[in-house]
Amino acid sequence: MFKHILLPTDGSKLSDRAVKHGVEFAKSIGAKVTTIHVVPEFRMIVDEGFVSPMSAELKKRFENESQEHARKMLAKAEKVASAAGVKCESVAVVSDFPYQQIIDTAKKRKCDLIMMASHGRRGLSSLLLGSETAKVLTHSNIPVLVVR
C-alpha cells in the first residue's frame, strides 16, 4: 500500500493533529514519513524605486527567524514520529506557493500519499477547505488524505 507519506505542517493545531494522525497511520502500515514546512519569501514594500538601506538587514532577520520557526515546527513533528518509532525526514523550503512546494517535494521524495490538514493558519479561505489544501487536491497526481 503506502510506503512514504508527506506530512505538511504550518504549526497550527489542526496541522499538528494531521501530523499526529499521519504518523499513527504510517506506523500502522509500516510506512515512513517526511514532514515539510514552507517558509514564505521575504517581501519589501518600496516606493518608486527607493529601497531602504535596512532592507538587506530586515531580509536577513526575516529569513533567520523564519528558518528557526520552521526548525521548531519540524522538530516537533520529528519528535512525534520518533516517539511512535516511525522513520522521519524533514524539509523546509522557501516559496510563496506552498501548494506547489508540497506537490514538488512529494514527487522528489517519491511519496505515495500526502496527508494534510483541511486548513491551516490562514483559517477557512473557503467554506470547506483552506486554499492551500484545495490547491494540493486540485493539482496533485499523488493521493491526498485530508484531516479535519
Short characterization:
By secondary structure, the chain is of the alpha/beta class. The chain has helices at residues 13-29, 55-84, 98-108, 131-139, and strands spanning 4-8, 32-39, 88-94, 113-117, 144-147. Helix 1 (13-29) packs across helix 2 (55-84) and helix 3 crosses helix 4 (131-139).
Descriptive account of the structure:
The chain has 148 residues and is an alpha/beta fold. Strand 4 (113-117), helix 4 and strand 5 (144-147) form a beta-alpha-beta unit. The longest helix has 30 residues, at 55-84. The chain has one domain (4-147): HUPs (Rossmann fold). The two termini are 23 Å apart. It has a five-stranded parallel beta sheet with strand order 3-2-1-4-5, with helices on both faces. The protein has four helices and five strands.
Radius of gyration over alpha carbons? 16 Å
Instruction: Give the amount of beta strand, in percent.
Output: 15-25%
Counting copies of identical and different chains, the oligomeric state is: single chain
Fold-level CATH name: Rossmann fold
The tally of domains stands at 1
Summarize the helix and strand pattern as letters: EHEHEHEHE
The named CATH superfamily? HUPs
The percent range for helix content is 40-55%
Sequence stretches where pLDDT stays below 50 over 5 or more residues = 123-128
Give a short account of the largest sheet: 5 strands, parallel
CATH architecture: 3-Layer(aba) Sandwich
